[in-house]
Design a protein that fits this description.
Elements lengths: L4 H42 L2 H8 L3 H14 L6 H23 L3 H8 L2 H33 L5 H18 L2 H11 L4 H6 L7 H9 L7 H14 L2 H17 L5 H7 L2 H34 L9 H46 L14 H17 L6 H28 L1 H4 L6 H25 L2
Helix pairs in contact: 2-12, 2-14, 2-15, 3-11, 3-14, 3-15, 4-12, 4-14, 4-17, 5-15, 6-7, 6-15, 6-16, 6-17, 7-15, 7-16, 11-17, 11-19, 12-15, 15-16, 17-19
């Protein structure tokens, strides 16, 4: 029925009002969406050293460790993921705060305030542990590529990955290199996606996630130590603190004094978001790898995994080709992320210990000794792949060394970050200090237990 002229006149204000409301709603939605996009962009922009440090924690060696936990113990050790999250977050946050508050890295602070012998002992063990890890990761990456392209030579792949890693770390500007590491963290989510391609009893998963169960057998103690050693690793401590310094230099604070003076409460808040985001990513990836291997390999009676590539191969019949590809690509991506962190953290520790010029922001000629340590660590890692060293033994040696270093380093980190003369207003609060000491005790007990059990 057509409206009369009179109806149109009286209807006009209502129609105008309705259109106005619709337009307002559309504009509001658009503004809301823009705000959300802006918030996400700002969040991503503020992420940096904490995210990449946490992500580098899940290297191919870590993937092999988590796969073995799931394959050999099923869901029973899933609680390790949420259990280790706050411990990792607290320690990494202390390391980052030390870098921000003092303007220099962790090793430089230990050298100034504690025995040099302790520092040299820790850095020497760190170098050996990192070289073992670099060697294991280079081999795992090569095997990962061979899963997809079997005819490519193992030796060539190991050498190729080592050269690419060194080139990026030495010749690419720090700003570009930091962004490269940041975007590489997306590779880790392939392990999360894999979980949705297998059949998992999520009620059982939740039960074992929040109700810890374990026995005091030798195998369990070693696995718990390996998991905590992989998650709360000494190389992450040195890398985190030094990367905070690198970020300050990138923003114009060239001198130590300038870095100390310009650090604000706002910087500390941003750092905490960054560090805890990295810790969350690291532990959520651990959680899903253990869950996937428990739901597939453990259920099928495949209880022994020698490497990350073995895990990918074993998963293929149960999770399909797509999940297999995600695991294989993840091995390569995480290796590209972890090897620079392993080599770089060793170099930061050694260079700061001896007072050499440090920093990825420097050119090769400006910090020859610093880059020299990175090159030596990677070259030694290459050789480890050609001397017949068993990959699992390599991981065990690395875990033992980390088990010796971690408690010592955590002790020094807590002492440094709790010292008001060193940290000023950014020293540990009571809650952080308490949780730090609890972490120290737990790591010490597990590490000593694992080392002792390996020689009994």
């Amino acid at each position: 029925m057509k409206k009369t002229i009179l109806e149109k006149i009286f209807s006009a204000p209502v129609e105008i009002l309705e259109k106005g409301v619709e337009t307002g709603i559309n504009i509001e939605h658009k503004i809301g969406e823009e705000k959300q996009v802006k918030a996400v962009k700002n969040f991503w922009k503020n992420l940096g050293p904490g995210l990449t440090t946490g992500a580098a924690d899940d290297d191919p060696s870590g993937i092999a460790t988590y796969s073995q936990i799931g394959a050999s113990q099923g869901f029973s050790l899933l609680w390790l993921a949420p259990f280790s999250l706050p411990m990792m977050g607290v320690v990494q946050e202390m390391c980052a705060r030390i870098g921000l508050a003092t303007g220099v890295g962790l090793a430089a602070n230990i050298k100034r305030h504690y025995s040099k012998k302790i520092l040299y002992f820790c850095t020497a063990l760190l170098l050996f542990a990192n070289v073992f890890n670099i060697g294991a990761d280079l081999g795992a990456m090569a095997k990962g590529v061979q899963l997809i392209v079997p005819w490519l030579p193992f030796a060539g792949l190991v050498l190729g990955f080592a050269i690419v890693s060194l080139f990026l770390q030495i010749f690419i500007s720090y700003k570009t290199y930091a962004e490269y590491l940041k975007y590489l963290t997306f590779v880790l989510f392939g392990y999360v996606i894999t979980a949705f391609f297998v059949e998992i009893d999520w009620s059982t998963v939740m039960l074992h996630t929040f109700v810890p169960t374990f026995s005091f057998s030798k195998a369990i103690i070693v696995l718990i130590c390996a998991a905590l050693g992989t998650t709360i690793s000494p190389y992450l401590f040195f890398w985190q603190s030094s990367q905070e310094v690198e970020e300050q230099v990138l923003h114009g604070e060239k001198t130590e004094e300038a870095r100390r003076m310009t650090t604000s409460e706002g910087d500390i808040k941003k750092m905490r978001i960054d560090v805890w985001s990295g810790a969350f990513v690291s532990n959520i990836v651990m959680f899903f790898i253990v869950a996937v291997c428990a739901a597939t390999l453990y259920q099928a009676g495949i209880t022994n995994i020698d490497s990350a590539s073995d895990a990918a191969i074993a998963l293929r019949p149960f999770a399909g080709n797509f999940a297999f590809m995600l695991f294989a690509i993840g091995i390569i991506g995480t290796g590209l992320l972890a090897i620079p962190v392993l080599a770089g953290s060793a170099s930061y520790a050694i260079s700061e210990s001896f007072g050499w010029k440090t920093g990825l922001y420097r050119k090769l000629k400006q910090a020859t000794s610093f880059y020299g340590v990175i090159i030596v660590a990677v070259v030694l890692g290459i050789f480890l792949n050609f001397i017949g060293l068993d990959p699992i033994k390599t991981l065990i040696y690395s875990a033992v060394l980390n088990g010796i270093i971690s408690p010592v380093m955590i002790f020094l980190i807590i002492r440094l970050s709790s010292n008001g003369e060193i940290m000023g207003n950014f020293k540990n609060k009571k809650m952080g200090k308490t949780f730090g000491w609890l972490t120290f005790v737990l790591i010490s007990v597990v590490s000593v237990g694992a080392v002792v059990s390996m020689f009994i």
